[in-house]
Amino acid sequence: MAEITLDHIRHAYGPAKSRDDYALKELNHVWSDGGAYALLGPSGCGKTTLLNIISGLLTPSEGRILFGGKDVTGLPPEARNIAQVFQFPVVYDTMSVAENLAFPLKNRGVPAAEIKARVARVLDMLRLTAIADKKAAGLTADNKQKISLGRGMVRDDVAAILFDEPLTVIDPHLKWELRAGLKRLHREFGHTMVYVTHDQTEALTFADKVVVMYAGEVVQVGTPEELFLTPTHTFVGYFIGSPGMNVLPVTLEGTTARVGGEEVALPAAFAAPAGARVELGVRPEFVTLGAEGLAFTTTRVDDVGREKIVHGTIAGRDVAAILPEGAEVPAEPRARFRLDRINLYADDWRLAPA
Ligand code: ATP
To answer: Which residue range or ranges hold the ABC transporter domain (predicted)?
Structure first.
């Protein structure tokens, strides 16, 4: 396995006159050996471009990519020692499930006893043992994709395994089970894994570190908890969570933020650069509705069973609050924000307390 270093990576598909012409703007990251990383972001943010640069299908316009300190920027895919799992299954129909898994190891001359042991582990972790001897041809799409995942994971000589939205064809109820299987395999085999998805649940449950991409940039690399509690960019706050973080324009006065004509006490003093657009971010989970706080006009209540999502406005801006199951929505509510869960943003980037 190897550490992956992205060194000043930029990529433009056509002539690049300005920063906006780059599909990837400037990536500088070191992803650790044995780490499970999810690349998460909306359609068009550059996930596939980055994955192709890592696999070698694409050479970046600028910058270098290193595996374990070795520059591989100019190397073709076959010289990079990378395993890839795609959206749709790639299996040998005439082989059994176990033979499919053994194939990449046989090809590399791995001793038979080791092949047997590794294949058995992968079959077990992906819950394929019961159908190990069945031919792949007659299997469901779910099981075929499990074989593809297993074929990626069975090798121990790869620099990294890249997954490109591998659970697209999988039945939603099976996804949890498969992600758990991937996690078990990762814990046991310690591969460096890069997993592309636009599904936040998939990213958060798969990865130790989630790399959030937006418009050709990496806006945050963090644990699921960090992305939830301290989004470094308003986009992360909006993209992670359902509904996403509320964002309200404010003016700062020391430890107070002014929202419309009202005041919110802040956990600390914040200073924003002169002229910056300042916003307060608070997740719906940390908004309570009661008799005190900011005037809140309810527009809609979504009762989703385990909780109520109350949509409304504060000073003309949309704000959502999540109330626990059984809680009543007050008739003329006022909204309070949990003090230690407020983040402040200047021109979309999170401010540290002054
Ligand atoms: P998706 O989730 O839809 O696959 P993505 O996050 O993987 O999106 P990319 O496919 O990497 O995003 O695309 C990033 C940007 O580069 C987009 O603006 C896209 O239109 C552009 N792009 C991607 N491939 C090409 C190409 N072959 N030629 C020109 N532009 C491209």
So the answer is: 4-240
